[in-house]
Amino acid sequence: MSHELEQHEGKVAFALVGDTAWHGLANAKWDAGTVVSVSEMLEAAFLAKWNVRTEPWEIPDGYSSDKDYVRIVRTNPFTGTTDILGQALGSYTPAQNEDVATFGDALTMGGAYPETAGSIYGGKRIFLSWLLPHGMVLDESGRADEVKSYLLVTTSHDGSSSTKALVTPVRTVCRNTLMLALESAKNMVSVRHTKNAPVAIEDARKTLRISASYMDAFQREAQMLIQTDITNQQAHDIFERVYPMPDKDAGKASLTKWETKQDSLWEYYTGSTCENIIGTAWGALNALTEQVDYGTKSRSAETGLAAAAGFDAARNNKRNEMLAVVKSVALV
Predict the structure, then answer these.
(1) Please, which residues have CB within 8 angstroms of residue 197's CB and are 6 or more apart in sequence?
(2) pTM of the entire structure?
(3) How far is CA 299 from the centre of its chain?
(4) Whether 183 and 56 share a structural domain
(5) pLDDT-based confidence at residue 138 (cuts at 50, 70, 90)
(6) Do 85 and 152 share a domain, yes or no?
(7) Is the same domain home to 311 and 207?
(8) Closest CA to 175 of 20, 332, 3
(9) If pLDDT is split at 50, 70 and 90, which confidence band does 174 have?
């Protein structure tokens, strides 16, 4: 999966605190536990002073339109030149990266510090994440699988998406997210790019505060899975139920593709990222979600990070399907 991070002459619009990201890139990296301010993170990730703005979109002679359009531009953080990022209706109000960062900071109520920040798709989308204090360790006296909790805030600068904030659990050992869309969870807020869109911080906090109960539900579900042992045959059965073998008349290419996916899943399941949870229903679920998040090409309108964190309805539905299969085969 391509990282799609914005780069220019050896510089990259990405910064982080803690373990190196899977792509190995970062313009700045601080040791785990380092307290970094929002302004420092923005500067380090080349997200500061973009001056995202709109300009009139002139209709060529001989053309007409019943709507008022504008083009969205910014000052390039590497070159200082002006970039066209997209177009939108005249009511569109750009969100500055500084405002997005302040929004996320306010949601944490000072109880967290930014851990990652970056720009992708040539500045069309940016993201920041904060490590939250309510993480968890599953099966502490046994397999001790750590799951952390993050606030992820992302916005588009091309008119394709509103500003969104979501609380997501992240398995840091393999950088694999497990956004299980539990029915009781309502832990995402969205703010439109218009002048009249209210940024109700208190309401957003109340919505995201449900994440505490979400994390409790997530922990109960995950704890049950990690304490459920499965055989190698059950693991194979799970993978084959999620991705059934194609019909005989589907052709050799389809069969080869299916076999490759099955091999890939087994490699995830038996590999280093799942070494402490192999032989459990939790390990099988991790292998499945890792394949979805890192073995599936992201659509150009969405980032792999945002999709993995729970902004992509199709992937959320797939994860829920996977969870149901794992529980059925493992008799949970």
Answers:
(1) 93, 191
(2) 0.69
(3) 13
(4) yes
(5) confident
(6) yes
(7) no
(8) 20
(9) very low
